[in-house]
Design brief:
alpha/beta; globular; binds BIS(adenosine)-5'-pentaphosphate; 8 strands
Length: about 220
């Protein structure tokens, strides 16, 4: 499975990508998670990326693409067995660079799933989200509670609110999504890869809809 998930902040890309990656045994490649990991480790890349992420802006294309190139060159077999991309690409230059990279390693995308949701739905999901500091798994105060409050079910690390998960930053991220990221959808439509799924449904229903649109039900 070589899949890309596209959608507004908080639509559920991470939630669905983790499920599908576990089910199909392929890597979940999230540039947001990779940047947050670099920020936690206080690496030079993390220090650079933090400035943009904390404002709700996009990290520049060269920094972001460097991360992806490194990931695809070091994660053994990622391209052979497939991958689920979440949050990358999110500009047209990133999408074009990715096409060149995947062409080179003979692992073109098989589908691009676009998850749709309203702006109010985004704000509700983002402001209620708590994420594991260890594995990044997203929880929600209302929609996905951990067994033990404030603790990750999977790795038992604490759950925290992301620094960019405030309402004003979400509005800015939404604007970036509209202005910069949505432009990649017609690019992939022209390649016949786009499938649309209603992201406002419950998590299990979204998973079912993705599987159905990919012909896996
Ligand atoms: P990134 O981490 O990718 O953030 P995002 O795209 O804004 O998306 P989120 O992770 O906030 O949401 P999600 O769709 O994964 O939703 P989730 O499953 O968690 O990027 C962060 C920042 O890094 C960017 O703003 C940018 O600065 C930078 N960056 C990253 N990639 C970049 C790139 N390529 N280029 C430039 N800059 C880049 O779900 C959200 C909540 O809802 C959770 O609480 C979850 O439990 C809940 N939930 C999920 N699904 C459902 C459902 N169906 N029903 C009810 N609740 C649900
Ligand atoms: Mg995410």
């Amino acid at each position: 499975m070589r899949l890309l998930l596209v959608g507004a902040p908080g639509v559920g890309k991470g939630t669905q990508a983790k499920r599908l990656a576990a089910e199909f045994g392929v890597p979940h490649v999230s540039t947001g998670d990779m940047f947050r990991d670099a920020i936690r480790r206080d690496t030079p890349l993390g220090r650079q990326a933090r400035v943009y992420i904390d404002q709700g802006s996009l990290v520049p294309d060269d920094l972001t693409f460097g991360l992806i190139e490194e990931k695809f060159s070091t994660s053994a077999g990622a391209a052979d067995h497939g991958f689920i991309l979440d949050g990358f690409p999110r500009t047209l230059p990133q999408a074009k660079s990715l096409d060149v990279l995947l062409d080179k390693i003979k692992a073109p995308l098989e589908a691009v799933v676009v998850l749709d949701i309203s702006d109010d739905g985004v704000v509700e999901r983002i402001t209620g989200r708590r994420s594991c500091v260890g594995c990044g798994t997203p929880y929600h105060l209302r929609f996905r509670r951990p067994v033990q409050a404030g603790i990750c079910d999977i790795c038992q690390n604490p759950l925290v609110q992301r620094a960019d998960d405030t309402e004003d930053k979400v509005r800015r991220r939404l604007e970036k999504y509209r202005v910069e990221t949505q432009a990649i959808i017609p690019f992939y439509e022209a390649q016949g890869l786009v499938k649309r799924v209603d992201g406002s449904l419950a998590p299990d229903e979204v998973t079912r809809a993705i599987r159905a649109t990919l012909g896996m039900s």
